[in-house]
Amino acid sequence: MTALTEMEFFIDPSRCIGCQACVQACGECGTHRGHSMIHLEYIERADSVQTAPVVCMHCEDPTCAKVCPADAIKQDDNGVVLSAAKPRCIACSNCVLACPFGVPKMQTKFELMMKCDMCYDRTSEGLKPMCATVCPSGALFFGHRDFIERSRREKAVNEFQFGRQLVKTKVNMMTAPEIKTLSFDIAEFLPADFSENDLPSRAGAPDAADFGVWENLPSQKNAANESESTEIVFAK
Fold it and tell me: How many CB atoms within 10 Å of residue 98?
C-alpha cells in the first residue's frame, strides 16, 4: 500500500470546469458525515464563468492552528492540518480570519469550524481523497510528483508570498513554468479607481479615524497632559 508521504496533492485551477463533482464527493468521505469540506470560487464572476476548487493548502506552519485559543486544530506527523475538534472548538472564528487562503468556514449551526482535512481517513491508508478521485478534468490530482512532471506543462509550486510572509504548503499549485513562488498583494484585488476615501469610517474611534497614519496620533504624554487640563462637566 502506498504511503501518504509518497503521494502529493496538486491543484490546477485552469482545468476546473465547475462541475462540482469534488464538492459532492467530499461529503461522501467517511468522516465528513455528508458535509462537504470544500467549495468552488468564481474567478472574475462578472466577466467569466471560470471556477476554481478551494481545498486546504495544509501549510507547513499553519496560521489557523497558531491563532486557535482552544488548541482545537492539530497537525499530524505527515503535515496534514486537521479540521477543528468538536470538543475543543469554541467557534471564535480566529482561524477563519487568519487563514491567508480563505479556507476555514465557520458552520454556525454546529458551532464548529470545518475545513478540508485531505480525507484523512482515506489518505492515511494510501487512498486518494474523494475530490481527486472524481475530478474529471485533472484540476485536482493526488499522486506521484514524477507523473505530474512528465504529463503536465505547468510547474508545481508550494511557496506563496503574502506581503512579507512566505507560506510553504503541503499542497501544490500548478502555474507557469518560470514561476517559483506565487506572490499575492491585496492592492491587486482592489478596483482600479479605489482611493483611501472609499474606506468606511471607524465607528467607535472618531478621534483616531481623523489621522491618516498612527504615527500622527498624540503621544501618551501629551494625551495625559490634555486629560489633566480638561474640565469634566456632568449634565444636570
Answer: 15
Does the model's pTM come out above 0.90?
Answer: no
- Give the model's confidence band at 197: pLDDT under 50 very low, under 70 low, under 90 confident, else very high: low
Q: Which three cell numbers stand for residue 64?
A: 489557523
Could you tell me where the DSSP H helices lie in the chain? 21-26, 63-67, 94-98, 120-123, 130-134, 145-151, 206-209, 220-229
**pLDDT per residue over 126-167, tens digit each?**
889 999 999 999 999 999 999 999 999 999 999 999 888 899
> Which three three-digit cell numbers place residue 163?
506581503
Residue 117, φ and ψ in degrees, nearest 5? -120, 25
From residue 216, give the alpha-carbon distance in Å to each of 195, 196, 208, 213, 219.
20, 17, 9, 6, 9
C-alpha closest to that of 75 among 132, 22, 115: 115
141: three-class secondary structure by DSSP: strand
